[in-house]
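## Example record

The block below lists the input lines for one assembly entry, exactly as stored, with component labels intact.
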Amino acid sequence: MPVDHRRIQGPECSEDYRKPKNLDAALLKKGGRRADGRKCGEQRKIFLKPGVVSQAKGSAYIELDHTKVICSVFDPREKASRNVEQQTVRGEIFCEFKFASFSGVQRRSHQQEADDKEYSLLLKNALEPAVCLHEFPNFQVDVQVLVLQDDGSSLAAAITCAGLALADAAVPMYDLPVGLSKAFTGDTEFYDPTGAEERLCLRGVDGESDHGVFTVGFLPTFNQVSQLFHSGHISPDRFEKMISEVGTLAAEVHKAVQAILLSAVKSSIDSSNNSKLLL
Amino acid sequence: MSVHIKTIHPMKYMRDFLARNIRPDGRKLSEVRPTAINVGSISTADGSALVKIGNTVVICGIKAELTVPNAENPNEGFVIPNVELPPLCSPQFKSGPPGETAQVSSQFLADILVNSKCVDLQSLCIMPDKLAWVLYCDLICLDHDGSVLDACVAALVSALCTVTLPEVKFDAITKNKTVELEKRRPLTLICFPFASTFATFDENSILADPSEEEESLCSGTISIVTSGDSLYSVHKPGGCQLSENRLSECISKAQKRSLTLRGMVEKSMESIKS
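Predicted structure tokens for the full assembly:
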């Protein structure tokens, strides 16, 4: 690892004590059920909470079993534009996505790696169509996402979490973006895959042509896909079939996010009413 | 009305409260905010803890790796703390390499580990001069509302309590390592240091466990690291003068607080075992 003078340095090289495990496709499906007992089309239990970071304008925390993601949104600040001609009538969202160093099986670097940068761009593409950018021209809204533990579907969880955080920050939006992910290999499909399922489907099982992981950023009210990211190999018919299913799958997540946002607004109204009574 | 005075004359707002021996959030001068410690939540890490002091939240994740010991200390392993203050936790931090505050906090934690000899580095050595453990302790602040050093030290100590290391057999001749993932032994800590931060205001008032607002208005802060009766570190970066009496008052308060925090860590350890 290159010497980083701003951090406490450890020994020059160290290795992980864990040996890479061989992923077995059969282990992941016992009697029609997945390793954690879910059916193939079943979502993990979602825990969502807005307003977790007191110092941020808006924030949210999501937990999908072992995948834990936190997101903060800050007030619009002036865009650092060096060129006067670059001033436009649109605002901008600046997304930063980061996996914590202890979030995966292997320890990650403190600096942003290639996949952190890629996910930042994907997140921005997923959120931009939902935000009313004309409401804050020449300003940028910062969206900071940190994955505390990665057990699959972290980008999808980040999209849902960032959508809720933007709503919590009262950023004007057209719709609540929702993230979904699906992993498939051969004929088996895993909706909302865990880390092990993702790794297996990215590598693919020998003898099966279709494999990969599919992440979608979806706008439920308009029934539009804002962002689609696929790694692997897929046939066009299968691709069309998956796209058509996205709407129904997103409805469940969308309902959960709406319910949480509604209860958060209600409780803030109640608390402001109570404080008025005290005065 | 009170909101306007707070924005235009923050010092006057603060002084009016302190004149009545109370703080803007309703606490007494020596009252600390409610503290919560949660251990073992990150299963990908070898040890983890989340500490919440009022609104301040710090998470610590420890990853263990194998390495060759230093030539100067062939019998010792390594414990490497690093504090990250990401832009996520507060608008005052920018993305990029660690700023001054983060570097100072990391060095502060490294000094505490050395001064208190909290972890016996020799217990981290598997074979002298050949193989040892290195524990990378990464702390991330998730919400920066004052007293971050207190939360960092508490998170580090709590996370170290949860670390379990697998048994490693090393053959010096064949240089072969066998790791028994099932046989895990916990790390034994020699002592449990905890930090308490105080903010001095106008040379008269000393506020325990200051919030971000109070830290920005105060004339200086002092952080004291103790473990029961033992004193490990007094960190006073500049600030206004402090009399000996005041300092000894702070030290005794810090000692009491470290005992309470130790009780909390032990309770949370028991809850995960059951």
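The longest strand of chain B covers residues 131-143. Chain B touches chain A through 52 residues (CB under 8 Å).
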